[in-house]
């Protein structure tokens, strides 16, 4: 009994481990080409949206120094990979490397078995030297900025002297450089204020003259009303003229038609006259009504 | 130590101790080879031996299996919680299951099973063999035409090996189940991802090393205490230390050596 239990346990464990290693799965092969195989090991997972869909089966060095990584992908997960899929190998600061697959367009043609792809490598640690170089440059600039003879220090010293002058000479004295100039500016300001007061009075008077009861604007408004009336009358006159012109156009049309009829009538009269003339000639020829028959010889 | 090397008597005793150490290990290897030959001989499994073998295997396994399973489950549960919570706090939860499986199933449980069987079964068996030999039972068997190694020693050794393998197998399966339940709870939804993690750990090399390690643990536990007793009883030299203690030291040395070798094989 115990022997059977042990055999069952060992057999079931062996089968489970074989199943876990993917021995019973039908897989397709995918080949990834990389420049560096650091962090890649046999048995490593390839993930798609965080789910493991493949397992690295072999890592080998190829001619030219590149690396060829064979990934076995179960057939049930194979449709996730398309011809436009992208494969990345990223190395974090903590933990191992990650092999990831991305498919941007799921409707692209499916991937044939044994396809080779170039893997994109993103290395977080590779950024460190560049980061350190940038930080060093930044520190250098900061040191230059905060040095004793730096422009910032000079500007601060100038600002301090200006502050001292502000205390004694005031802001205008600092700006104009002299107290006399400051006084001139103040007097100019006073005169400007007086001028503005005068302008204010003039503006009030102009307001009365323009907008007052006897101002320009009411008269202009009346004139506009009159002009509007005249325009209305002119519009009515123009309408009458327009009607007259319409009638004249109708008369002209009738005259044109009558002219055509006269031409036709004239033609008919001409035809009738010719016929009558012909008949008279025939009558004359058969029955000589004329008293004087003349025969002219040539 | 300086005085030991200084005097000729010290050097003589050191040489004698070294020789005794080599002779001891040689006797163990010799008995192991003899027992292996007997174990692989079909003539060893006659009716009487089969009965003794079944009785010894049952007595060596059945009484300790439930207790050991419960004990190892409790210890496993504590270790799983510690590892999972620690990994989670450092944001390394994806490595927690790998670590649990490696620490428990690959390393701790086979070692604990071997030590448990050594203390509860192998050393008492060695004492029984010594008592049988001292009581003249071996001579009586020889006079009946029965090989005492075949009738008394072989069943006990096979029982010791069987007990070690059984305890390790049951506890490993229980530890795997406990790890799953501790991390994912009572759901079957995570079975695929869990299986994948287990598959990651059990690469072909690791499986071979794990199998060999467990087999050699069971062999050492079953062989060394009994071999020490059998050959110590034959020799009529004065005993330096008690036989059981000497066997225990040799057993621990062998287990330590196997463990170190497996660690080197797994991680280097």
- The dominant shape of chain B is globular
> Span between N and C termini of chain B?
36 Å
Got a strand count of chain A?
A: 8
Write down the overall geometry of chain A.
flat
- What's the assembly state of these chains? heterodimer
Task: Measure the end-to-end span of chain A.
Answer: 168 Å
- What string, H for helix and E for strand, traces the elements of chain A in order? HEEEEEEEEHHHH
Helix fraction of chain B by DSSP (H/I, runs of at least 4): over 70%
Low-pLDDT sequence parts of chain B:
none
Secondary-structure-derived class of chain B: mainly alpha
Strand percentage of chain A? 15-25%
Gyration radius of chain B, to the nearest Å?
22 Å
Walkthrough of the structure:
- The complex is a heterodimer of chains A (298) and B (268).
- Chain A is α/β, with parallel strands linked by helices and 298 residues long.
- Chain A has a domain at 12-128.
- Chain A has helices spanning 2-20, 127-145, 151-176, 179-211, 216-286, and strands at 27-34, 45-48, 51-61, 67-74, 86-91, 97-102, 115-118, 120-123.
- Chain A has an 8-stranded mixed beta sheet, with no helix packed on it.
- In chain A, strand 2 (45-48) and strand 3 form a beta hairpin.
- By secondary structure, chain B is an all-alpha fold.
- Chain B is built from 10 helices and no strands.
- Chain B has helices at 2-6, 8-40, 47-61, 65-89, 96-134, 137-143, 148-184, 191-201, 204-234, 243-267.
- In chain B, helix 7 packs antiparallel against helix 9 and helix 9 (204-234) runs antiparallel to helix 10.
- The chains are: A alpha/beta (298), B mainly alpha (268).
- Chain A binds chain B through residues 2-3, 5-6, 9-10, 13, 16-17, 19-22, 42-43, 45, 52, 94-95, and chain B through 57-58, 61-62, 92, 94-95, 162, 165-166, 169-170, 172-173, 193, 195-196, 198-200, 202-204, 207.
